[in-house]
Structures are given as C-alpha cells and as structure tokens.
Amino acid sequence: MANLADPINREAIQYCESIEGQILSTCDPLKHLNITHFGYFKFFKNGTYLKLCNNLAWSKFYITHNLADKTTAFAESIIAIPFEELNTQLWPKSKGNDCLAALYEHNVWNGIDLTVKHEDFIEVYYFATERENNQIFDLYLNHIDLLMKFKIYFQEKAAHLMETQDKKSLAAQANPVSFFSEATQSIPIKANINIDAFFNETPVTHYYLGGKYSHIYLTRREAECLWYLSRGRTSKEAGRIMNLSSRTVESYITNLKVKTGTHWKNELIDIFLQSSLKNIFTNEVKVPINFIP
After folding, report:
1. N or C, where is the chain less crowded by C-beta within 10 Å?
2. Reported pTM
3. How far apart are CA 151 and CA 133, in angstroms?
4. Which residues contact residue 181 at a Cβ distance below 8 angstroms, ignoring those fewer than 6 apart?
C-alpha cells in the first residue's frame, strides 16, 4: 500500500508544500462566493495522480491515507460520462465511505465536482465549504456559471502547476481507482455571495476551447464575437453591442478560422457550442459588463 514512506508520495507532498502560496493566492477570489475549499485532481490510467488544493493539511492527509483508493463511486460513474464533456455532480450528504468521513472530519463539506474525462486522464475540479454552510447549494444550483468561470481562471493562472512533466508532483494510488461522488439534491437557500467582487478578482485573458482544440485559446474579444454569433447575431449586430465595427468583428472571426483550421462560421459556432465556454457566456447583456475584465 502506498504511504508517506514511498518516495513518490513523499515527493508529491513536498510538491504540495512548495506551491502552497501560489495555490492560496489563486484561490483567494473564491472567498466572495463563500467557497472555502478548492481542489484539482488529474488522475492517470497508471494509478498516479496530481492533487492541487488550497488546504495543505487535507492534501497531506488525503495522500498519506490513500484516500484515492477508498471509494469506487467515481470509477463506476465515470463510465457514463462522454469524453471531453463536463459533468457536474453534488457531493452526498452522508459519510458513506472513508474519504467522505475524512472530509467531514476536516470540515470540508457541501461540495460539488466538475469532471472532464479525457483519453488518457481524468480532471476533477471540486469546490466545497464548511459543514454548517448549507446555503452554498444556491450557488451550485443557480450560479454554476461562476464555478465554470473560476475553472477557466484557474486553468490560466495555475497552468504551470497543472503540468505533469515533472513526475515528482505525482502521488500514487495503491489500487488504480479514482474518487467521485453520487449526486444528491439539496433544498436551495439564498446564498450571500459577492458576484461583482468575484468577477473583478478573476480576470481571464485566455479562453481555452478544450477537447481536440485544448491547445487553442480565444482572446477576450474573440470569445465575445463567437458567443454573439452562436446566439444568432450578425457581425454587424455583434459589433454594435461591442462598440466595434463589423469589419473588426469579421477580422476576429477570420483569425479564429486560422487558429482552428476551419473555413466557415458554422464550423466555429459548432466548436464553441461543444466547449465549456458556452456555459460561461450565459447572459447577452451581462457579458460585456460583468464577465469581461
């Protein structure tokens, strides 16, 4: 069984310690949403995994107690998730396994997972708060776009930490299974969150498309143009909303075609609608005011 005595897990914990300050700084805007706990997993088929988290004590406990091996719910549920499609799932309210019991004891509770299954690895972004904060489910059920936005922000700000070329950052599972939780429902209660402050402190300049276009990112303006086009707007209409000329909008579209290797606007729109970006740009009036830095 893997434990702290194993060099790979010892080095993984040392990696977590070395990046603690960077993770805390990146996750700081989540305070405006009353999210106290954020983490990122990248699980590989060979049983190794990357764990980034704003709670160092929990990361150490998770790795040293092999909690990645303590539940099969994730392995069972992931089969039904299509490749390259974002899946959201609320944590259970019951302490049904060792991992959930440990989360409860560490006051990491009332959480939600955002999971993406790729060909060679699985990514999990998870958000949680304290045991007493049941109001957080209002955020999960009614403001999921804010979590999607932070996911993109984290991808940009922590890209260098998410890379796994240095195997010293990886921990090892004793048995190659990954954790995930069966979705539950909760009674929505109005959450006291500061959306404007959250947006102000999570500026994004690179909007990655994901999937086979994961290496391609859109600029702020390119993303805006494509979003308006996906909503049925013409280039002239999009330009008027964005205070740009239609010629400028067309130049953004032309640049996007070059980036993606496409020839038609419909192809660009299809790529956009298949990406998680469509979940971010949800309100036509709100986008240029609150979403765009």
Report:
1. N
2. 0.68
3. 22
4. 71, 73, 74, 89, 90, 91, 92, 100, 111, 113
